[in-house]
Amino acid sequence: MRYAKLENSYVRLLSHEYDECANDVCSLHKRTDHHMREYKQIFSYNMGIMLRFCSHDVGHPDPDDAKIINGSHDGTHQCDGCCIRFATEEEVMRNGLR
Which distant-in-sequence residues (6+ apart) come within 8 Å of 8 by Cβ? Predict the structure, then answer.
């Protein structure tokens, strides 16, 4: 076990080693090039998943989190639309995100 620094954060989280990642994608060691990479990364102990906090201070599930990828967490969260990369204003309003 080793401490991994969360992206855009001062937080360090005790985690598995790089070579122990269960998948090709890992929110700590093997991040993809998603549009929320610039957001601060925080682990939510209440939800049991990694979150990305946008500039509006809303926590969105990190798309690289194993529970999001494998579907064991449905990604439900208080959303302002920042996690939807190319959402139009109409889509945001239709989905009740604002």
Answer: 38, 39, 40, 41
